[in-house]
Specification:
Length: 521
């Protein structure tokens, strides 16, 4: 706040700040309004009867994220409830779903701006409140137009990422800025009921207390203890509800294809090597990919592998920047760098293997830390240089995001992107096989699936899909042979059978779907 400024003047300035950030968050993604449903949108929304009536808005809290016929995995009731409301309002028209995603993304950008505004003390360059607003504006704009967000914003099921980010950011804001246990806890519940990665919120709050902000001192020990008790209660309630809902369903541990059949040691090496992609996507997001599967990315088994050295170099760079920020008392930069690591850790595969080696949507929450750190760093530039640099970042980021958004128009455009951006990945021809099959071209589907299996033959879904094509062609014995191969590769294969049966039924091949389901052992 500038000396002598009236509250109304300050409020007006802040309002213009938030409106500018929201506009920059919305404009690059306007092409998403012409997108349809793609990839997992089909399973979670289009083919899921739960979201096709308003009753699904409350039934979502008693059911799994993935439909029961597809394994009933994960518990994310808030996105599913939102989909049910959206379906009722828009009668299934995708434009409404995409508009909702845009609004949530703009909300996150505004919250990031508000958080930056609250954490900054008057700038050391003597700009006072204006310097604080400059840092907040830079942080908000960097987040608003960052191209790595396209997958989360332009794909409808990315709503879980957006809602979880809102919950986490509000939980941190309420705890660090307002020191309000109730509101922070409520925001944490919103995040957890949106996606599991919101579990990082308490760690981010503790990190903020460790860093310490002069305008926002850490609460007294008794208040801290109240926060900790609230987290324990929230965790207990969340785990109890989640366990009760998911208990009837089979426990499937999803694992990324690159980790199949590999040792835990190789998995951790591969995860460290992937940090090279993480740095590239956060700092230089020129090349974006839908898929990072084999052989676009392969396992790292040796300590002498050059990819491991690159990953370790990225980790060392992050550590050096964090130490420098800490020693120079650049608290917001230090907090932002720590945020990146804390938010990325659950999805990094460093602690345990997850369902994907790397997905750009999972960088949505970690990029909040990047925006906070970058905004604080940019605010130290001379005013004229700052305007030029920030203007270039906004224009370049906005254009890259706008050009990338149509990739998520439908399944075919996503598949074309995989074939062009990840030409060595087996997922490209595998998805072409699915498209051929959806257009009742089983022979072409088999050809594409064989091509995918030549690249990578450890994914059982390839053989289940090929069995679907063989049944469609009237060759059930060959289908049985393919399913025997799939059984050798997967544990509890019925989920794959049901997924493929749903795809067959959606294209009108009920007999094929029934045949697949009859083969479940």
């Amino acid at each position: 706040m500038d000396a002598g400024s009236s509250p109304s003047t300050v409020d007006s300035r802040d309002r213009r700040l938030y409106l500018a950030v929201a506009a920059c968050a919305l404009v690059p993604y306007l092409p998403a309004l012409w997108n349809g449903f793609a990839m997992d949108d089909l399973y979670i929304i289009v083919w899921n009867p739960l979201v096709h009536s308003l009753r699904g808005a409350w039934r979502a809290f008693g059911g799994p994220y993935w439909p029961p016929d597809l394994g009933g995995q994960m518990y994310r009731p808030l996105p599913v409830a939102t989909f049910a409301v959206d379906w009722t309002i828009a009668h299934g028209h995708p434009a409404w779903f995409h508009a909702i995603n845009l609004l949530w993304h703009a909300s996150v950008a505004v919250i990031v701006t508000a958080l930056a505004l609250a954490l900054h003390s008057p700038s050391p360059e003597g700009r006072g409140g204006q310097g604080v607003r400059t840092a907040a504006l830079a942080a908000g704009l960097v987040f608003a137009v960052h191209p790595v967000h396209v997958e989360a914003v332009a794909n409808v099921i990315g709503l879980g990422e957006l809602m979880a980010a809102v919950g986490v950011c509000l939980a941190v804001y309420a705890a660090v800025v307002r020191q309000n246990v109730v509101w922070s806890g409520a925001a944490l519940l919103v995040g957890l009921f949106s996606k599991e990665n919101a579990v990082v919120a308490p760690a981010l709050i503790i990190w903020a207390w460790i860093v310490g902000f002069s305008p926002r001192p850490a609460p007294p020990p008794r208040r801290m203890l109240t926060f900790v008790v609230s987290w324990v209660i929230i965790a207990g309630v969340y785990l109890a509800v989640r366990g009760a809902v998911l208990h009837p369903y089979a426990r499937l541990h999803a694992i990324a294809p690159v980790f199949l059949g590999e040792s835990a040691f190789a998995g951790r090496l591969t995860a460290v090597a992937a940090l090279g992609d993480v740095l590239r996507l956060l700092a230089f997001p020129l090349t974006l990919r839908v898929d990072y599967s084999p052989a676009e990315r392969t396992v790292v088994r040796s300590l002498l592998d050059g990819r491991l050295a690159i990953g370790l170099g990225c980790l060392a760079l992050w550590a050096v920047l964090l130490v420098l920020a800490w020693r120079r008392r650049r608290r917001v930069e230090a907090f932002g760098l720590g945020w990146i690591a804390i938010a990325f850790l659950p999805v990094s595969n460093l602690l345990f293997s997850t369902g994907v080696l790397l997905a750009e949507r999972t960088l949505y929450l970690p990029s909040v830390g990047l925006a906070l750190a970058a905004g604080a760093a940019l605010a130290r530039l001379p005013v004229q240089r700052l305007r030029v640099v920030l203007g270039l970042l906004v224009v370049a980021g906005g254009i890259r995001s706008a050009l990338r958004t149509p990739v998520w128009h439908d399944d075919f455009s996503v598949t074309q992107s995989i074939l062009e951006d990840s030409p060595q990945s087996y997922r490209g021809p595998a998805r072409m096989g699915a498209i051929y099959q959806s257009h009742r071209q089983p022979a072409q589907a088999l050809g594409a699936l064989r091509e995918a299996a030549k690249i990578y033959d450890r994914d059982p879904t390839l053989f289940v899909a090929a069995a679907d094509a063989e049944i469609t062609l009237g060759r059930p014995r060959l289908a049985d042979t393919l399913l025997m191969r799939a059984e050798q590769l997967c544990y509890r294969c019925p989920g794959y059978y049901r997924t493929q049966a749903l795809a067959a039924r959606s294209r009108g091949d009920s007999a094929v779907a029934d045949s697949l389901l009859s083969r479940i052992r």
